[in-house]
Amino acid sequence: MLSFSWPDKGETLSWGGGQSGRLGHGHQSGIFGLLKSDSEYTPRLIKELEGLKVKNVAAGMLHSVCISENGSVHFFGEKAKKKLGYSEASNNLVPSMVDELPYSEKAACGGYHTCVITGGGVLYVWGTNENGCLGIGYSLLHCLIVEFVGCSTDVAHSPERVEGPFLSHPVYEVSCGWKHTAAISGGNVYTWGWGGSHGTFSVDGQSSGGQLVCSLRL
């Protein structure tokens, strides 16, 4: 478990479990001057974000994302190649900006995938596409691997836009589970990814594209 706080004065604080650098502090803390721990037991300033006003924060299983008031996206935590789509295996111990994204408003983190909504209501995703949780379908390479090798690893190494008839309107909310995603677009709720056995979907199985769950009356 971890927590964030971002008072309106250019400070972002984090505390809790800090595995893989997901707190963004860049180093371990001492306990009574002797032991080292990844965890923070009281709120601590993320120095690399000092002076940057943050408007949105999301936390996944082993990674975190902050969005500043100027729309920049900052990532820290787990960067394992087969999980979050990065070419190197080392973790991001301090926040680094995701340069490929335009002005952004909101973020959501799943187990090993990330979603960001831009100012224009466009949804971008990256990370593992296990069970179709990114909503971008499957790559040809993924299909060939499944057919001839039997494994099912599929990863987006950089942000990709989610497109399709199920997102014909701007997206204004997104939420991630471990291996599934939900978004609100045009007053409708859509889900994709792992169906599981506990009501993740309104239908059984899994989907790599949007499934309409319900229509909202706003």
TrEMBL record:
Pfam families attached to this UniProt entry: RCC1
Signal sequence range: none
RCC repeat extents: 10-70, 71-120, 121-187
Keywords of this entry: Repeat
InterPro entries: RCC1/BLIP-II, Reg_chr_condens, Ub_ligase/GEF_domain
Protein name: Ultraviolet-B receptor UVR8
Organism: Anisodus tanguticus
